[in-house]
Specification:
Layout: E1 5-13, H1 17-31, E2 36-44, H2 51-61, E3 65-70, H3 76-86, E4 91-94, H4 105-115, E5 120-126, H5 137-153, E6 162-169, H6 170-178, H7 186-192, E7 197-203, H8 216-230, H9 233-263, H10 270-303, E8 310-314
Parallel strand pairs: 1-2, 1-4, 2-3, 5-7
Antiparallel strand pairs: 3-8, 4-6, 5-6
This protein binds uridine-5'-diphosphate (UDP) and magnesium ion.
Transmembrane segments: 237-257, 269-295
Domain Glycosyltransferase 2-like: 8-175
GO molecular function, one term: glycoprotein 3-alpha-L-fucosyltransferase activity
């Protein structure tokens, strides 16, 4: 008997009740072209709508569908981690539930891993400039600068437009699972573990239903996560600015003293003092903030809390033939 590759499809879901069925149909339509045995692992990340019930229905009809139900919302990073942890396939792919990760690409991904010397295939999103399609302009500007900024500031090299839509061989998944850190920035971890990765492009599409759970505030937090996860450059900046301002202050002090002793000028500037206090105060507070970001993360790491808590787990039968 021809032994088929086993493929695990991991789908983090947060309030995706309206998308689940469409997603399931979309994947079904394309997966039959592939010569794989697959399982579909939906992670219900504390949704407040009927996501769980939808997946339970699918699970009853289709033994390839699994459900991992979290006790509350733990975030997409935690959901992806749980999916990787419970995946059984030799190949594993992570997909969004809103069909923004087109299932058409699955074939190319599987073929690449089967036939070419790659260990992972990552989808790169290209902006769709057609009016009304793809992400809003402000979001696009934010995301472009996000990659530039994180790359400049950190030790990993993120590809612009790289998404979490990736298919990986088991050894890549195992190395991701071996990373035990609590604050996970997967976009960076994927690059950090190495392995030969092929990048394929697709045009941005809008989510099929519901709305994105990202606010601009959470995007800024995500950027900070990306930088602090992979670099200590902000800390070095803080100390460098400290040294520079101390140096300039000494020069100025020398000037004030000579001016007084040699020229007999009294110290004049109220304005100088106020601006100095504000300037140094500002720098001090910013540096404290930078320190705080790192300390907060150390605090989270040392507590060693689990990344997620599972309420219920309905497993799949990955070997089930149609
Ligand atoms: N998601 C999740 N937990 C969260 C937020 C999002 O599992 O706390 C899932 C969501 O259901 C979707 C994927 O992560 O399948 C991407 O989320 P979203 O579409 O909101 O992000 P965007 O596509 O706008 O980047
Ligand atoms: Mg989306």
């Amino acid at each position: 008997m021809n032994k088929k590759i086993r493929l695990s499809i991991i789908v983090p879901c947060f309030n995706e009740g309206k998308s689940i069925d469409l997603f399931y149909k979309g994947v079904k339509r394309h997966i039959n072209d592939l010569d794989v045995n697959y399982e579909l692992i939906f992670i219900n990340d504390g949704s407040r709508d009927d996501t769980k019930e939808r997946v339970e229905l699918l699970h009853e009809q289709d033994p390839k569908v699994a459900l991992i139900d979290f006790s509350r919302n733990f975030g997409k990073e935690a959901a992806m981690l749980a999916g990787l942890h419970f995946s059984k396939g030799e190949y594993v792919v992570i997909m969004d539930a809103d069909l923004q990760h087109p299932p058409q690409l699955l074939k190319e991904m599987v073929d690449t891993l089967n036939l070419e010397p790659y260990d992972a295939v990552a989808a790169i999103r290209r902006n769709n400039k057609t009016k009304g399609k793809g992400d809003p302009l402000l979001r696009r500007i934010f995301s472009k600068n996000f990659y530039l900024f994180v790359n400049k500031m950190s030790d990993v090299d993120l590809k612009e437009g790289a998404t979490d839509y990736r298919m990986m061989k088991r050894k890549v998944v195992n190395s991701l699972l071996a990373i035990k850190e609590y604050n996970r920035f997967s976009k960076g971890l994927f690059e950090w573990v190495g392995f030969k990765t092929k990048y394929i492009e697709y045009r941005d599409v809008e989510r099929v239903a519901g709305k994105s759970s990202w606010s601009y505030f959470s995007l800024i937090n995500y950027a900070i996560e990306g930088i602090t996860s992979f670099s200590t450059v902000p800390l070095k900046f803080a100390s460098l600015i400290g040294v520079l301002s101390a140096f300039v202050s000494f020069l100025y002090l020398a000037f004030v003293i000579t001016d007084k002793v040699i020229n007999g000028n009294d110290v004049s500037g109220w304005a100088t003092i106020v601006s100095l206090i504000l300037f140094l105060g500002g720098i001090t507070l910013i540096s404290l903030g930078v320190l705080g970001e790192y300390i907060g993360r150390i605090y989270n790491e040392v507590k060693r809390r689990p990344n997620y808590i599972i309420n219920e787990h309905l497993t799949s039968n990955v070997n089930h033939e149609e």
